[in-house]
């Protein structure tokens, strides 16, 4: 039975209890969210050592980090170091987007070392295998695509990005729209090329029940991919993007009827004034399904600093109801990220996620900030470091310039709180607990 079926049958569901405890909400909140499709717990039983997390309504905004090899760089030790950075800096999920080297071996090695939710995009391996064996990506078969999904499931993948909404109709919308950047999703491009060359419909859409059967058998979650996400703010919120979203909303209903967990991937590059509307439209068309956004990036000119452009959009999106942020690193659009890029991308997205959790009223979010403020008032540098998102960075920052005063070297003896304390009589004499 799937996780949803176990809940319906009244069985004991440890994953639900674990998530409820982590989120400081009741078991009923999590269970009801799973039943109505507004919460997912991607947790393949074959993923040994998984520390399950929930994604969706009423839960903390989660952050995903992408790693993986490319045709230009395929060192598994490098990827393991990136994975270690993901865990150290607090990613809730990791996706392996490998396209170089031994893709299957890379995936299995990473899953074995990964305690958090693990995702993949199976169409990558199917397409690359077709190129290696037959010479062309367009020579892969529908069976190749589904075989790739099943092999990922057998390896313990918890959620898979499947671009079911890239159809002949969606492509026609793209053609009639006219875009500056056309398709920037690699999975979307693979399928579009295959469909146009073979003059056939997308097998993942045409044989969606076959996909549901696999998801039910192996108990992985479907992340319905946005193959036509905008790759520039000029292309945001166009007919092609929303045609795909309409189809995904229809597939959400079918997935729920099959007791399969499903969530929706979203844009992409979106100007700030369109982000809230994008979230609201997804929640309406997809019946409240959890929303997983890449960024969104609010401008196209942030090369080298796109973790910032993504964090700005991510905070707005999550504050409006998005549930899951895919990080963007400083090397986005420029190169394969290294460990430092992974760290900076995760930190930026975690800040965005937490800022959104405060306005969403997530249990414990505002309390964290209040504790930090109390520690600052008390000039308790030990507590401030412990409460910081990255404690070591906070400690090093405070010690960067020595000071003779209890305050930091920015103000020294002219610390605003210390000065005012003398006249208001509010000096804090105890350390923040």
Give your account of this protein's structure.
- By secondary structure, this protein is α/β, with parallel strands linked by helices.
- The chain folds into two domains: 3-360, TIM Barrel, CATH 3.20.20.540; 365-424, no CATH class.
- Helices cover 51% and strands 9% of the residues.
- It has helices spanning 3-8, 14-23, 27-36, 76-88, 103-112, 122-134, 142-154, 168-177, 186-198, 203-206, 208-218, 239-257, 272-285, 306-319, 339-360, 365-377, 381-387, 391-399, 416-424; strands spanning 39-40, 55-56, 62-67, 93-96, 117-120, 159-162, 221-224, 262-266, 291-294, 324-326.
- It has an eight-stranded parallel beta barrel with strand order 3-4-5-6-7-8-9-10, surrounded by six helices. Strands 1-2 form a two-stranded antiparallel ribbon.
- Helix 12 (239-257) links the parallel strand 7 (221-224) and strand 8 (262-266).
- Helix 7 packs parallel to helix 11 (208-218), helix 13 (272-285) packs across helix 14 and helix 16 packs antiparallel against helix 17.
- The model is unreliable at 429-433 (pLDDT under 50).
């Amino acid at each position: 039975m799937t996780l949803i079926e176990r809940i319906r049958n009244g069985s004991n569901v440890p994953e639900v209890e674990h998530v409820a405890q982590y989120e400081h909400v009741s078991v009923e909140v999590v269970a009801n969210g799973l039943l109505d499709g507004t919460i997912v717990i991607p947790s393949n039983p074959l993923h040994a050592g998984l520390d399950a997390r929930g994604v969706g309504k009423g839960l903390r905004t989660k952050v995903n980090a992408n790693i993986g090899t490319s045709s230009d760089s395929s060192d598994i030790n490098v990827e393991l170091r990136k994975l270690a950075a993901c865990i150290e800096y607090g990613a809730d999920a990791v996706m392996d987007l490998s396209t170089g080297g031994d893709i299957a071996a890379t995936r299995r090695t990473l899953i074995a070392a990964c305690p958090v939710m693990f995702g993949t995009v199976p169409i990558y391996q199917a397409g690359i295998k077709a190129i290696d064996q037959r010479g062309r990506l367009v020579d892969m078969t529908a069976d190749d695509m589904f075989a790739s999904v099943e092999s990922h499931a057998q390896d313990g993948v918890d959620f898979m990005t499947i671009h079911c909404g890239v159809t002949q109709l969606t492509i026609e919308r793209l053609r009639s729209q006219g875009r500056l950047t056309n398709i920037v999703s690699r999975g979307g491009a693979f399928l579009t090329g295959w469909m146009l060359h073979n003059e056939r419909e997308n097998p993942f859409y045409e044989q969606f029940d076959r996909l549901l059967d696999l998801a039910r058998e192996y108990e992985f979650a479907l992340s319905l991919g946005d193959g036509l996400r905008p790759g520039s703010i000029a292309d945001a919120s166009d007919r092609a993007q929303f045609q795909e979203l309409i189809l995904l909303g229809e597939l959400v209903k079918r997935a729920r009827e099959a007791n399969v967990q499903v969530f929706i991937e979203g844009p992409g590059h979106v100007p700030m004034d369109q982000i809230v509307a994008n979230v609201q439209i997804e929640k309406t068309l997809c019946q409240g399904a959890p929303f997983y956004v890449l960024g969104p990036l609010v401008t196209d000119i942030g090369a080298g600093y796109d973790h910032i452009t993504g964090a700005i959009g991510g905070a707005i999106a999550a504050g409006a109801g998005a549930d899951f942020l895919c990080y963007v690193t400083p090397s986005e659009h420029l190169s394969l990220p290294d460990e430092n890029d992974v760290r900076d991308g995760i930190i930026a997205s975690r800040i965005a996620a937490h800022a959104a959790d405060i306005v969403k009223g997530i249990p414990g979010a505002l309390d964290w900030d209040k504790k930090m403020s109390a520690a600052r008032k008390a000039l308790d540098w030990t507590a401030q470091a412990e409460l910081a998102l990255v404690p070591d960075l906070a400690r090093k920052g405070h010690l960067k310039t020595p000071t003779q005063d209890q305050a930091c070297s920015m103000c020294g003896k002219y610390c605003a709180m210390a000065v005012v304390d003398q006249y208001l009589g509010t000096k804090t004499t105890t350390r923040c607990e």
